[in-house]
Amino acid sequence: MKKRLSLLLFMMLIFSVSNISAAPMLEAEQDYQMQLIGQFGGSMYSVVLQGVYAYFGVGPRMVVADITDPANPIIVGQTAIQSSCVMDIAVSGNYAYIAIGAEGLKIFNISDHSSMVEIGSVDTPSSATGVEVSGIFAYVTDDENGLRIINISDPKAPQEVGSIDTPGNAHDIVISGNYALIADGDKGLYIVNVSDPTAPLEVSSLDTDGYAFDLAVSGNYGYIADYHKGLRVIDISNPNLPIEKGFFSLGIDDYASGVAVSGSYAYVGYEQAGLYIVNISNPEAPVEAGSIDFPGWVNEVALSIGYAYAVGNGAGLRIVSISDPSEPTQVGTVDFTGVVESVVVSGDYAYVTDVEVGLRIIDIRDPRSLDEISFLETPGYAEGIVISEDYVYMADSDEGLRVIDVSKPSQPVEVGSKDTPGYALRLALQGDYVYVTDGEEGLCIMDVSDPADPREIGSLNTPGYAKDVALSDNYAYIADDTEGLRIIDINDPTSPQEVGFVDEIRLAQGVAISGNYVYIAGDEDGMYIIDVSDPADPEIVGSLDTPGSVYHIAIFGYYAYISDGGSGVRVVDITDPSEPVEVGFIITPGWAYETWLSNRYAYVVNGEEGLVILDLLGYPVYLPMILRSN
Fold it and tell me: Does residue 41 contact residue 420 with C-beta atoms inside 8 Å?
C-alpha cells in the first residue's frame, strides 16, 4: 500500500506548451545552444471557478478550461511557462492573481484566454503559497514569512503595503470581514486583523493537532484540512478565542490536504483517498455522507451548483456531480501527469514515472505538442524505469519491481512483479537480469528471463543507502549515498562481490559510466570523475563544482549533461577527464533531477514542474541560457 511522501513534496498535461514566451538570448562566444521546446505536466495545487471557466495550476503554469458542459471540459488557454510551480490562484474580473512559489505573486490579464499576458508582479521574500483578493488588496501567504498584503489598485504596478509574520509556515488564507484566517502549517489556525492593511495585527491562534494545509470558512466556522489529523471544525464566532468544536478523521491513512464548504457539507480532498463529502450540520459531530476515489492525490476542491472540481498530483482535474452527496459521481475529467520522477525514451514514446500514479506513456513524435496516450497505476511510489523491447521495468519504492508489457503503448499491462526487501529506487538492465538499488538493503539482482515471473537470484547489502546503479561488462557501479561509490563484481549474478570503492565522496546521488570513467553526481559537491580502469583500485581524477546540487549525469560523446537542481542543466566538456570544463547551461523550471538524451533532444525530469524537453541543436533560447568559453 502506498505511504505518504515527505512534506517536501508540498515545498503534466496533454497538450503543447506552444506559447512559451521567449526570453532575450544572451550573447555567447561558443556555438553550443539549447532551446526549451516543450513542457509536460506537474503538480496541481489550486483550482478556482469564475463563470463557465475553471482556472487551475499544472506545474509551472495556469491552465483554463471551459466547463459549460461539466462532462466535457475543454482547454481554452494557458499561461507561459513560469520558473516555479503554481501554488494558488485568485481570479477577479479580468485578472488572475497567481502565487508562484519562489517567484512570488504574478498578475495576468485573462480577458483573452488564448493569450494571457503577465502585467505585474511582486517578488515576496519567501515562497508564495496562497492568495486571496478582497477589494484593492491581494493577501498572500508566504510560507515562513507569513502574510504579505499587496495593493493591486493598479494591477500593472502592485505594491506591498503591509506584512506580518506568523509562527508557522503560512499555506492558505481566507478573508472574512476585517479578519484574515491563515492555515499556518504545524501551528494550526492564525487570525489577523486586517482592517488597516498597512498595519495587520495578530488577534489569536489555535494550534491544531496536525499540519494545517487548507482552509475554508462558512458562517461562524472555519474548516481546516489538517493533513494527518483530517478535518478540524473551528468555532470562529469570537475571533479572539477560536475553539475547536469537532473533527472528522479517516484513521491511519488520513491525510487531508484540501477543503471546500457549501451548505451542510464539507468537501475534503485526501492524499490517496480521493474526495470525501462530510455532513457538518452538527459541527460537533461531522459524519461521512459519501466519497469517491481517484488516482493520486486531491490537493484542492472548488464548488459550483451541483458539482465539485478536484485537482491534485496524478489526479488531474476531476469533475464530480454532488447533487446526491451520498453518491458522488465523476462526470468529466482532464488527465494530467503529476510529479515526474524518471523517464526513458524508446522510439516514438517517452515512458515517465508519475510518483503518485505509476507509468505514463507520452507520444513524443512532435516534441512541441506532446500527447499522453495511456497510463497504468502501480501500488507504490513510482521511481526509476528502464525499457527493453516490449517491456518496461519499474522500481516501485516499497512495492519492489514491476514488469509492464508495452508492446501496445496505448494499452500497457502489468505482467509480473517481485517485492524487494528495501525501497526500490533505480535499476539497470543487462541481458536477462535487472539490477535494483534497494535503499538500505543495497543491490538486489532479479532474473527476468520470464517477465511474468521475476525472481531474486542475488543481493549485496552495501554499507550506505544504494541510490543509483550503472553497469559495464561484469561490474555494477553503485551510488551509495554517504558511502560514495561501490564497485561490485557481477560476473556471477547469484553471488555479487564488492571489489573496490571510493568513499571520499560525501553524498553520491547518481552514477554514469563511459569507457574507463565513472561519473558521480555528488549533490552539493558537484561532479566527480573516477578512473575505474582497475575496478579494484578506483581513483578520483577530476571534479567540477556546480552552483546547484547534482542529482544525475548523462553522458553523450565528449559531453556530460548534469541535472543540477535549481541551477538547471549544465553541459560540461569531458574531453580531458582531469579537467572538465563547463561550456553552457540552461535554467529549467523548478529543479532538474534527471536528464535522458535521445537523438537531438534532452528530456529533463523537473519533479513538480513536470517534464521539460530541450532541443540540443536549437536556435533561439526560450529560457535564460549562458554559454561559457575556455
Answer: no
Dihedral, CA of residue 345, residue 350, residue 351 and residue 352, to nearest 10: 110
- Domain spans, the chain: 43-334, 340-561
DSSP 10: T
Among the listed residues 372, 381, 453, 442, the one whose alpha carbon sits nearest the alpha carbon of residue 410: 372
Is residue 606 within 8 A of residue 590, CB to CB? The reply is yes
Q: Cβ(45)–Cβ(299) under 8 Å? A: yes
Give how far Cα 551 sits from Cα of 446, 528, 548, 564, 623, Å: 25, 12, 9, 6, 21
580, three cell numbers: 572538465
pLDDT for 100-150, tens place per residue?
Answer: 999 999 999 999 999 999 999 999 999 999 999 999 999 999 999 999 999
Contact between 50 and 65 under an 8 Å Cβ cutoff? The reply is no
Residue owning grid cell 552552483: 547
Residue-by-residue DSSP string for 327-383: S-EEEEEE----SEEEEEEETTEEEEEETTTEEEEEE-SSTTS-EEEEEEE-SS---
* DSSP element (H, E) containing 387: strand 385-388
Grid cell, residue 536, equals 579494484
- The HSE-up count of residue 314 (CA atoms within 13 Å, CB side) is 31
Backbone phi, psi, residue 511, to 5°: -145, 140
43-334 and 340-561: identical CATH topology: yes
**Model confidence, pTM:** 0.86
Contact present, 497 and 489 (Cβ < 8 Å): yes
SS3 string, 554-599, reads EEECCEEEEECECCCEEEEECCCCCCCEEEEEECCCCCECEEEEEC
342 closest CA partner among 595, 601, 13, 38: 595
Instruction: For the domain covering 43-334, report its CATH number.
Output: 2.130.10.10
- In sequence order, the 6+-apart residues with CB closer than 8 A to the CB of 383 are 341, 342, 353, 355, 394, 395, 396, 397, 424, 425, 426
The model's pLDDT over 152-190, given as tens digits with 9 standing for 90+, comes to: 999 999 999 999 999 999 999 999 999 999 999 999 999
Dihedral pair phi/psi, residue 570, rounded to 5°: -105, 140
Q: For residue 26, give the DSSP letter.
A: P
Minimal CA–CA distance to 522: which of 569, 468, 560, 481? 481
271 or 100, greater pLDDT? 100
DSSP 273-304: TEEEEEE-SSTTS-EEEEEE--SSB--EEEEE
- Nearest partner of 239 among 187, 188, 168, 177, judged by Cα: 177
- Could you report the per-residue pLDDT of 288-323, keeping only the tens digit for each? 999 999 888 899 999 999 999 999 988 899 999 999
Distance CA(357)–CA(369), nearest Å, equals 22
For residue 387, list its beta bridge partners.
Answer: 392
C-alpha–C-alpha distance, residues 276 and 291, integer Å: 4
- Report the topology of domain 340-561: Methylamine Dehydrogenase; Chain H (2.130.10)
